[in-house]
Design goal:
The protein is an all-alpha fold. It has 6 helices and no strands.
Length: 223
């Protein structure tokens, strides 16, 4: 009887030790607020860097399209671009996951739009023989923005994976082959490119606020 009791005690101790090890392992993989906050701050800086590039490209685009870097038209919209209007209280109560998930897919929408516009501009540039010496074309400048957006999306995806290990970054088909002119006139084509850059600028401003809010919320939980 005593021997059986000792065996049960040994099994109990082993089970308890295994449970403690498991809990410690889970805790070690739990998202660290300090680490998360650091990643949000990095995302904020990358968003601001990307937005600065978009603003510079906007000026160049308007200079080439209308010879006027101060051209503005807020009345025109593209229906399939991400919405920029948000209810303040709904925005304030969004979860971190919802913000990151929405940002990832919204940026992909802009990526697709920019890729089609870049391909369209490349065709125009070849037709007009605008490549002279080392001069950088608008299509090349758009590609630089696309690379920045790609880095930002990768950063957001890594944050999502850190929050939920089940998240896997999706792969997107190339839009180059299916790219086609969606506008009928030169003016419409130029205006479409302007609207994409204009809304991307505004969206990145909104996204930067998201990252600041997420970082500040984590800071408040640490205090």
């Amino acid at each position: 009887m005593l021997k059986l009791a000792k065996q049960l005690m040994t099994v109990w101790c082993q089970a308890l030790l295994l449970l403690c090890c498991t809990l410690n392992l889970v805790d070690s993989f739990a998202p660290s607020p300090v680490f998360q906050r650091h990643k949000y701050k990095n995302s904020f800086r990358l968003t601001r860097h990307t937005r600065a590039g978009v603003q510079e490209l906007q000026k160049k685009y308007k200079e080439q399209a209308w010879w006027n870097e101060y051209f503005e038209d807020r009345s025109r919209q593209l229906k399939d671009l991400p919405s920029l209007s948000t209810d303040f209280y709904s925005w304030l109560n969004l979860t971190a996951w919802d913000r990151l998930h929405a940002a990832f897919w919204d940026l992909q929408t802009f990526q697709t739009k920019l890729e089609r516009k870049r391909t369209e501009l490349e065709e125009e540039e070849k037709e007009k023989l605008t490549r002279k010496g080392g001069r950088q074309t608008l299509s090349a400048k758009i590609q630089h923005i696309q690379l920045d957006l790609r880095d930002l999306m990768n950063q957001i995806s890594s944050q999502m994976t850190y929050m939920r290990s089940s998240w896997t970054k999706p792969t997107f088909p190339s839009v180059t082959e299916t790219s086609s002119r969606t506008t009928t006139t030169v003016w419409d084509s130029r205006l479409e490119g302007y609207i994409i850059l204009r809304d991307l600028d505004l969206y990145l401003t909104k996204l930067a606020r998201d990252f600041l809010l997420l970082a500040s919320k984590l800071l408040m939980t640490q205090q």
